[in-house]
Specification:
Layout: H1 2-15, H2 24-30, H3 34-43, H4 51-82, H5 84-102, H6 113-131, H7 141-144, H8 147-164, H9 171-178, H10 181-189, H11 198-225, H12 227-245, H13 255-272
Length: 287
């Protein structure tokens, strides 16, 4: 039963790779498995005595993610095309509804100036990234397939991988800012024609995996050593994400429709979000 639940949660996580601006870390928090996720990814190569336990957690989650992308991609795409503003307000409601669970993740979440600064830092980080202008044309595929281009793509992919496990950030947007999104997508698409761009694909894969593992380790360490400060920063990232999801021309849609979509998101977040633990240094994986 536990593996089936993880597959379902993985399907929800897979949706974040389809919806622009909705980071995977936020959904993992909503589902109550964010801390377990970063611990497993951050320590699977370090704590060799627990790699089977971590793999048993990550594998069904990964299977669900792939299934979610394959099964729900068409539905989400249609909904986004027909009701873009209402869909974004629904996800904004999900984010706002997640905040109470974030503030329950540690026993001492009283406000202080350092914690307020952490919240503001998280908020400004997302806003600054969302207001940055992506590269209009990006690099040609041939350029990132060269040695110099591959090293650059390795760095951008590393940052994108780290962003994909950081609440409020979006790995795809980092690729857009770096100008490598289009050539990477092109390189992946041409695999169906048995055309392999080794430089682009290897640098993307290696960079993304390293970014995910290293950032997961850093986040896991921060959550265990300074939990309250870290969760205040995560709260700031979540609030900043609301700005990132704000749709263009929302007033073209019924105010009542937007309000109802927002409230549905908030209610669902309250229903499904659960604090991962009352004491963050102890992971659910070790229970």
């Amino acid at each position: 039963m536990r593996y089936f639940v993880l597959i379902l949660k993985g399907m929800a996580y897979g949706i974040t790779h389809i919806v622009p601006g909705l980071g995977g870390g936020l959904i993992l928090i909503l589902l109550g498995i964010y801390q377990d996720f970063v611990e497993a990814l951050g320590n699977i190569l370090v704590k060799r005595d627990k790699w089977k336990e971590y793999l048993a957690f990550l594998l069904p989650l990964g299977v669900g993610m792939v299934l979610g992308m394959l099964i729900l991609a068409k539905i989400i795409t249609i909904v986004l095309e027909r009701y873009p503003a209402a869909t974004m307000f629904f996800f904004m409601g999900l984010l706002i509804g997640t905040l109470p669970s974030v503030f329950r993740m540690h026993k001492d979440m009283r406000f202080s100036l350092p914690r307020g600064a952490a919240l503001l830092l998280g908020f400004l980080l997302v806003v600054l990234l969302k207001t940055a202008t992506p590269a209009n044309e990006g690099f040609p595929l041939e350029k990132i397939s060269t040695l110099t281009g591959s090293l650059y793509n390795l760095l951008i992919s590393f940052l994108a991988g780290g962003a994909s496990v950081t609440p409020g950030l979006d790995g795809s947007y980092i690729l857009l800012l770096g100008g490598t999104y289009s050539p990477v997508i092109q390189a992946v698409a041409e695999l169906s024609n048995l055309i392999i761009h080794w430089g682009a694909l290897l640098s993307t894969g290696i960079g993304a995996v390293l970014g995910i593992i290293i950032f997961s380790k850093l986040i896991d360490t921060a959550l265990k050593r300074a939990p309250a400060l870290s969760y205040y920063c995560i709260a700031g990232l979540i609030v900043g994400s609301v700005y990132g999801l704000w749709p263009h021309n929302p007033l073209h849609t019924s105010i009542w429709g937007l309000g109802i979509a927002f409230l549905i998101g908030v209610v669902l977040a309250f229903i499904f979000s659960r604090p991962e633990t009352e004491n963050p240094p102890e992971s659910n994986l070790t229970k």
